[in-house]
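Please discuss these two lines.
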Amino acid sequence: MILPIVAYGHPILRSKCIDIDSSYKDLDKLINDMWDTMYSSDGVGLAAPQIGKSLRLFIVDANPLSDNEEFDEKLKMAMINPKRSEEHTSELQSRPHI
């Protein structure tokens, strides 16, 4: 099912997201709906807040950007409760426009 995507400026995009676990109701359906929504918008990534859910969940499929079939299966994933490492945090802080 294709879900509505919230517009830039919506308060949920600035709110703190909550952690979820595998017992989250209809998690598989939500992730599948997110894939449908992302592909229907020709996207390569989608975060739960973009569909109005304040959850620590995002999906990414960078296969359309890849020229190397060897890595294709590693470029599509759903991330639940992702954590930043200090190494990557400092990289992001050095690029404030991201």
Observations:
- The first strand starts at residue 45 and ends at 47.
